[in-house]
């Protein structure tokens, strides 16, 4: 089976997930600067989650640029990834629950959903590799994936850390986001090679 | 008429239906473990419905891989299917109404919407067969469809059962989901044949 | 310019409009048959609006099957149509405001939005004809459009009628929907001709 | 990398942003003309924002008609644009907070988000130019972009103006919208040239 509809469906889900979070940005009840400031914690979590969904969309986009076919297992591995990503608006909204500071449990839950998303992405990659032959570019790329190990380690540290130094856990999530925001020239070069 | 836009529109609707349910996962009002647990019944129904929409999307995807053309009747048969599927977020949300256990009527209603979705899918298949010629792969596949009969039987048993042993009805729905989660190798092989 | 993205964007907006209305189908607060019945007026308006959006999607789909190019004016004529259609969830929700019967003003407003949608669709057709050359199929089709005149007449009758016999106005809207649900064989045959 | 999925994802996000605002158009609690009128300020802001998103979608559409490839930087420049546009429903909703008149801070915030969207669009253009070679049409077009400078100037004037003559700021935003509604024949002609 071709990859077209899987990509279109994933684009649809991710586009909704990324914009659904704005619904949580309720217009302040008053029109003063103070009321605008009260939206700040929700806003900051929105920015972080927007970047995370952006990263996943970018990686998903790269992944299917080099994949040529899907089967039933790939469809479900992809739906599994979308499932965890679809929980991000929920955890984002809980993160901004308290106007004054971030609380332990929502921060840990947020990290757990990020960790499970990373696991789901990993499963998707493995399922794609199984479904393709030896020449499949992803199999070659996978060894370089230091970023994946660092991110996973940071999530695993951040989840218990949330109960001790909540803000440090948030910093961990932000570091992971920054790591992925840096452009991956090697990946891009390889994709361009394949397309030519 | 070609199938492209019908697929794109269905992808859009299903992507929204699958993510709209998360809006019902309201962030708990408190930040304790207990408040997180109170979201559990809604969460479990969300998981079940996510899997159901996933199954329908997968089957829809397979169906249009082997279909080459649509006409006005197919467009409406497809909209009819999307109509019933679009009611799933509503019944899912009602299912999680009571925090402590599932209640009879919401469980029966949930089953009714699943049953009508199955009927709508069946009508869509028949409409597609009518619109294609003798060589149409779907006509060949249709005889093997044991899964369809088992699912329909389970829905019809589960709806009245919901008023006696509510949990058993939920178990029926879960069994149907499991049946469909198992990969359909025969279907995939046939699709690959057509594409080559 | 090609029509691809205009179609994709319109599919997206219509998919959202058609599913957004379900958000108004709030899960009943109780789990009795009576509480399920209380959702009935909202549900009936949902069904009617679902059919209307379905009709517009079908017609839009047909329209762009026979159109090959767009320009800035077509993009805006299309956005103008989407604007009026995007108001349907709002008027649908107002229509179901009162649990016991439909009220005059919401029914008239609903008709007004339908009328404006019809006008916007008409403008879109004219803009497309202007943008294509003599051979353009739509120019040939336009003369047969009895359906359009009947619908417009029914809307114009229904709007004032809503203030006298509210239910009769609803009947008018239902008749228009039925007229458009009947398959348009002539249109389909012409489209198939063009594609071959 | 090809532009297909970037366009599809952007279409998805913009389609959601443009329709999400309707959710703020809550059905009036009463069914009188007066209650309908009370929705007017929210409705007017909805119309203005609908036009703005429409303008951005049109420009985005034109932009990628003449662009052939994307890289990681373009993907992020595009996500950055989508981020600011995704805030428009929030500021639109705040704009209609007070039923009787527009208040200073929401009007200024609205202008700020429009200004940042314009900046993000500018960055996206520059990133695209960097990623293409000398022949790239956009590089030629960019010099004519008087509209951009006028819009930016009007935003910068309007933001402080909102605190003095609030309505004049709204007028500025409306003027910018009108400027962009006028068809850009030169752009269209150039695109048609490229396609042929």
TrEMBL record, chains A, B, C, D:
Record membrane topology: Multi-pass membrane protein
Catalysed reactions listed for this entry: K(+)(in) = K(+)(out)
InterPro entries: TMEM175-like
Family: Belongs to the TMEM175 family.
Stated name of the protein: TMEM175 family protein
Compartments it resides in: Membrane
UniProt keyword terms in alphabetical order: Ion channel, Ion transport, Membrane, Potassium, Potassium channel, Potassium transport, Transmembrane, Transmembrane helix, Transport
Membrane-spanning ranges: 6-23, 35-55, 75-95, 107-124, 153-181
Domain of life assignment: Bacteria
């Amino acid at each position: 089976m071709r990859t077209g509809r899987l990509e279109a469906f994933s684009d649809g889900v991710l586009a909704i997930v990324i914009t659904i979070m704005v619904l949580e940005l309720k217009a302040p009840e008053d029109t003063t600067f103070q009321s605008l400031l009260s939206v700040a914690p929700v806003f900051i979590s929105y920015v972080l989650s927007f970047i995370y969904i952006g990263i996943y969309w970018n990686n998903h986009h790269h992944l299917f640029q080099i994949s040529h076919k899907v089967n039933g297992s790939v469809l479900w591995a992809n739906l599994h990834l979308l499932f965890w990503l679809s929980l991000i608006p929920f955890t984002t909204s809980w993160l901004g629950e308290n106007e004054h500071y971030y609380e332990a449990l929502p921060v840990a839950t947020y990290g757990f959903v990020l960790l499970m998303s990373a696991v789901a992405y990993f499963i998707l990659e493995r399922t794609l590799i199984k479904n393709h032959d030896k020449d499949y570019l992803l199999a070659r790329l996978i060894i370089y994936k230091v970023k994946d190990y660092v991110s996973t380690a940071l999530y695993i540290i951040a989840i218990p850390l949330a109960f001790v130094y909540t803000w440090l856990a948030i910093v961990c999530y932000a570091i992971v986001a920054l790591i992925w925001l840096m452009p991956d020239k090697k990946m891009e070069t390889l994709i361009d090679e394949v397309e030519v």
